[in-house]
Amino acid sequence: MYQIKYSKSFASSLSQTITYWQHDLEFSDEQIKNYVSLISKNIHLLSDFPFISKDVSSIYHFSVPTYRITIGKKYAIFYRVDEKKKTIMIDSLFSNKQMKIEF
């Protein structure tokens, strides 16, 4: 089992996304709760299956193997696996429009 760690930018990006959902899209609290639950479920699945996603480092020109979890149709989370330390580093939540990524 791998330990999940979050980058400093993950909480910030999630908070900004939730604010956007509330104010711009006017999602209900229940809709937001369901989406956040889906994000959490997908991340925690990685602790048992860290390589469930495809390595996308060549697509985004990363020098380190990097994986992408797709959340619904509009969002993605990038992560990296450290096999020696048995950890997974979760990066920011990105909308598909934002795919200019620095990790």
From TrEMBL:
<protein>
    <submittedName>
        <fullName>Plasmid stabilization system protein ParE</fullName>
    </submittedName>
</protein>
<dbReference type="Pfam" id="PF05016">
    <property type="entry name" value="ParE_toxin"/>
</dbReference>
<keyword id="KW-1277">Toxin-antitoxin system</keyword>
<dbReference type="InterPro" id="IPR035093">
    <property type="entry name" value="RelE/ParE_toxin_dom_sf"/>
</dbReference>
<dbReference type="InterPro" id="IPR007712">
    <property type="entry name" value="RelE/ParE_toxin"/>
</dbReference>
